[in-house]
Write a structure and sequence with these properties.
alpha+beta, 4-stranded mixed β-sheet, Nucleotidyltransferase, domain 5, 4 strands, about 120 residues
Length: about 120
């Protein structure tokens, strides 16, 4: 939909169990938020519900963006995965140019609790 109006989807999934999808409309030089939905759900579910509520299809969206970070590793990864797939499929953005999340620090990976207990008994 080229012309006077453009739609933009902005996915904020920095919190692992909360996703906010905002639908923005560009009118000449500024963006206006016309809808925002926050759910404890997968970004795809929240995106689908936002589009359904506003009677839009994914091909009518001109810009897809995700919150860059920092935030939850899982949350940021989920939001970027959705946005990157949509930009790759609908906008033809090459995979090498798709943005990666900025986590803000190294991941804090710990052993599963069952392994910790087993190691302590030895």
């Amino acid at each position: 939909m080229k012309g006077k109006y453009m739609f933009k989807i902005y996915i904020d999934s920095r919190l692992r169990k909360q996703t906010t999808v905002s639908l923005l409309k560009k009118y000449f030089i500024f963006w206006i938020k016309i809808d925002s939905l926050t759910l404890e759900a997968d970004p795809v579910d929240v995106l689908a519900e936002t589009l359904r509520r506003n009677n839009l299809r994914t091909d009518r969206i001109e810009v897809y963006e995700a919150y860059p970070g920092p935030g939850s590793y899982t949350g940021l990864k989920m939001g970027h995965a959705v946005v990157n797939v949509l930009n790759w499929v609908y906008k033809g953005v090459p995979a090498a140019k798709l943005p990666l999340p900025k986590y803000g620090s190294e991941p804090n990976i710990t052993l599963p609790k069952t392994k910790k207990k087993a190691e302590n008994k030895v």
